[in-house]
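FORM 7B: Structural annotation worksheet

SECTION A. Query
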Amino acid sequence: MPGESSDVGKQGSFFLVYGGWHNRSTWDRVAPLPRHYIRCTQDHAMPLTGQDHMIATMGAAIGGKTTTHTLESNHSPFLSQPDAMSKILVGIGANPGQTRRAGAADSDA
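SECTION B. Predicted structure
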């Protein structure tokens, strides 16, 4: 289980582990919560393959489902596409536990 040791990053995972995440009970509480990830197709800092790996790694590590949303944007959609980003975030806030799709390219991981 991630967080049980400090070498999580050495296992090829892209997600970060901070102090509170080292506690197994934290993972047990987080796993059932709805997760959403906004994929950015033009992101050169974290290409789609890296984003997809991060989504899959988190799902494999703690279980549950990650609902994905896709924007044709760079690494900072809140700057390059604030309206589209806001629409996704408002939708997540309105229905956090439901699968919501921002466009035809979206999928659930």
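SECTION C. Observations
Residues 1-20, 99-109 have pLDDT under 50 and may be disordered. The chain is about 35% helix and 10% strand.

SECTION D. Sign-off
Analyst initials: ____
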